[in-house]
Amino acid sequence: MQTHFTLAQLADPDISDSNAILRACVHCGFCTATCPTYVLLGDELDSPRGRIYLIKEMLEHDRPATSMVVKHIDRCLSCLACMTTCPSGVNYMHLVDHGRRHIARTYRRPLIDRWTRRVLATVLPRPGLFRWALTAARLAQPIRPLLPARLQAMLKLAPRSVGRSAAIGPQVFPAQGSRRMRVALLTGCVQQVIDTGINQATVRLLRRHGAEVVVVPGVGCCGALAHHLGDGVLDRVRANVDAWTAELQRGLDAIVINASGCGTMVKDYGFLLRTDPAYAAKAERVSMLAKDVSEVAQALGVTAGALPGAPRVAYHSACSLQHGQKIHAGPKQLLQNAGFEVVDVPEGHLCCGSAGTYNMLQPELAEALKERKLRNIASVQPEVVAAGNIGCITQLGGAGVPVVHTVELLDWATGGPKPEALEQAVIRR
Ligand code: SF4
Ligand code: SF4
User: Fold this and answer.
1) Quick one: pLDDT at residue 305?
2) Is the C-beta atom of 353 inside 6 A of ligand 1?
């Protein structure tokens, strides 16, 4: 694609990077076929190619974003299916992130939109505040039909219960047996409130296979939720980089992340801080160490014998894992090695509609994608669904079978307790 940025514009590293991305696009349109919003709406402007044109026009002419541009960029899930399909290696993720920052700088959203986004960016990354908000959401359920549509969507998504076991604070969990690895665990923000069992299962699984697990003080939310809302998160990113860099003195083989949306973000820290001379090298180091829990489980050789009564598992590949981190076969292989029968979900490349805060900001599209995903899951008749991202696990709550994190099944198969969601399903039967 031809671009016409001026030399003055190209002196800005963000413009220079976006220019290179735009020039890689050859308008072939292969990406449209796998874009969930294009599949649903059939509008070129709701396809990756259409959005690329919109961002190009906006940046090239340094124009404030219009409501039309905002509408189509807001509808993008950041699922990155387009990046998997693109034969030219167009980095749509960095381009749309740039577009969103430009929108945040130049467009004044309607009041309700600004309020909703501010609430989400403030509450979700803070576990204490989020826990309190969930209690308030439960109390407000009886008056839900009387509230504005967007508030209804937010309340509908609030889980009926929060994690039962205790959240994990900064500490060191020694390896069982001889130590083969020392890793830092990102305990996350939303996940540690909604489902504390995922971090507990991760720690048990890694320790059982010879990893010392440290939860590093000073590490908080990875910043992904606010970043995708177009907010500035670099101070948060720098704080995490500082905390992990301090721990590096004691030796770290990996930074383990068990929410794939967070993993995609941390793996991009090096890019986000590339122009900061004080942080570029440190952030790159952190990104290189960042690993999805399935990558570390594979490195540790997690495997198990046959598990009596092991349920048939539908593996739902989270977009941030398959498209963002290019991890697809690994988690399935681990489940098979642990004795589970694993079936693929048809249209596995299509997003379930969760996408961070998308299901609260674009409830109609998110609901349509969820229904489609649930139909596809039902078609393979699983007894349990496994996924590697808390957003998907929450979104697929209506699957009719338990939805658990992959790591909970691996923990169970290698000597840990049966996942809570499976126990509850047995009790309900
Ligand atoms: S990130 Fe997903 S929704 Fe956005 S343009 Fe790409 S495929 Fe479409
Ligand atoms: S597939 Fe890649 S090169 Fe083709 S239009 Fe989409 S982004 Fe551009």
Assistant:
1) 82
2) no
Q: Which residues of the chain have pLDDT under 50?
A: 429
What is the domain-level CATH number for residue 397? Answer: 3.40.50.1860
Domain total of the chain: 3
Gap between the Cα atoms of 347 and 88, Å rounded: 23
- The bound ligand whose nearest atom lies closest to the alpha carbon of 30 is 2
- Is the C-beta atom of 95 inside 6 A of ligand 2? no
Residue 242 is predicted with a pLDDT of 98
For the chain, percent of residues with pLDDT exceeding 90: 80
Residue 121 near residue 133, CB atoms below 8 Å? no
CATH code (residue 194) = 1.20.1050
Q: Whose CA is nearest to atom 4 of ligand 2?
A: 28
Expressed as residue numbers, the domain containing 25 is: 7-106
Burial of 403 (0-12, 13-18, 19+ CB in 10 A): buried
For residues 329 and 351, state if they share a domain. yes
Residue type, 264: T
Among 270, 298, 326, residue at a domain's last position: 298
CATH number of the domain residue 74 falls in: 1.10.1060.10
Please tell me the predicted confidence (pLDDT) of residue 429. Answer: 47
**Which of 26, 34, 44, 91 maximizes ligand 2 atoms within 8 Å of its Cβ, making it the mutation to test the pocket?**
26
Task: Specify the pLDDT at position 261.
Answer: 96
Compute the distance between CA of residue 370 and CA of residue 93 in angstroms, rounded to an integer. Answer: 22
Residue 157 lies in a domain: no
Q: Tokens representing 328?
A: 């697809």
Return the pLDDT at 221. Answer: 93
Count other Cβ atoms within 10 Å, centred on residue 30: 14
**Domain end: 106, 137, 159, which one?**
106
What is residue 255's predicted lDDT score, i.e. its pLDDT? 98
pLDDT tens digits, 334-345 = 999 999 999 999
CA distance 101 to 88: 24
Residue 142's pLDDT is what? 76
Same domain, 17 and 89: yes
79 lines ligand 1 (CB under 6 A): yes
Q: Are residues 275 and 306 in the same domain?
A: no
pLDDT in tens, 364-410: 999 999 999 999 999 999 999 999 999 999 999 877 899 999 999 99
Q: Is 392 in the pocket of ligand 1 (CB under 6 A)?
A: no
1 lines ligand 2 (CB under 6 A): no
